[in-house]
Amino acid sequence: MSSTQKALVVDKKFGNLIIQDTEVYKPGPGEILIKIKATSLNPVDWKIHKYGFLENYPLILGTDIAGDVEELGEGVTEFKKGDRVFIQGRYENRGSSFQQYATAVASSVARIPANWTYEQVAALPVVLTCAYVGLYNKHPYGLGIAPPISEATQGKYADTPIVVLGGPTSVGQIVIQLAKLSGFSPIFTTASLKHTVFLKSLGATNVLDRNLSSSDTIAEIKKITGDKPIHFVYDTVSSATTQQAGLDILASGGQMVVVNPIAVKVPEDKKVFAFLGILRSPENVELTETLYHDKISGWLEQGVIKPNNIEVLPGGLAGIPEGLARMQADQVSGSKLIARPQET
């Protein structure tokens, strides 16, 4: 194996994305080295590049990793070279995904089931972590719902309504499927009505036109729930407009999670939580290790979580800059862009 690899590097703050030769990292104790077969692009990637949020330049972006175990660090015994795995990467070069190799903490790594491809699972980690943490982490890092990791908690929230604002988003699709696993019913989501059949296939029971006013949305919900209050809202869009709509929908005592900073005034009788969907954030580690290490592979194999639509970019790492530009221009809808670093 070579000691160098190809990586897509931001050469300096606000600099260009260029392909360079970089080192292949040695996995530390408790880590594995992954040969990256597929990675997906996320909005945060172009935002970091454009706005210079990070400081450790030269910088490698990307945080969705799917590939093969290449090397084991000290103390890792449960994996072997060639195992197919996936994980959410880290915002540091040795753990980022826009390169051919990256290291990962073995206790947070998931195995790829036989019925999923590298490209399909590469579309999952960032949005999966975000959906899962927002629903199941304790306050103030999530809604505090009991994770559906046992027979006792799967289906626990039967006859409890939940509203998912932005069901067609990548995060929204996962939230709907997890809400179904937890037993929530009815599961309301907002969307363009052209997505109705698809969202119902994921588990949504009622798809509401995203262009309805808050009062009309509430009226539609009450047609189904009667006087039953809405105590849970997950806003996957999290603009000021959708945050206010979520607050309007919430009953007194209800709570909402948002994926962007809170942009509205929150009344005293309601709670809104903004959280970090980062795999190894200290407040998330216990929750996400259980998800990735113990649960998600089985759920994927069983069809609890279904694959996203994907589009594979040509040219390996060389195809990523154009893909990020398309995302920034809002020219990507309904699919995740995937790159194969080994084709660079």
Automatic annotation (TrEMBL):
InterPro entries: ADH-like_C (IPR013149), ADH-like_N (IPR013154), ER (IPR020843), GroES-like_sf (IPR011032), NAD(P)-bd_dom_sf (IPR036291), Trans-enoyl_RdTase-like (IPR047122). Residues 15-339 form the Enoyl reductase (ER) domain. GO terms for molecular function: oxidoreductase activity, acting on NAD(P)H. Pfam families: ADH_N, ADH_zinc_N. Gene3D superfamilies: Medium-chain alcohol dehydrogenases, catalytic domain, NAD(P)-binding Rossmann-like Domain. This is Enoyl reductase (ER) domain-containing protein.
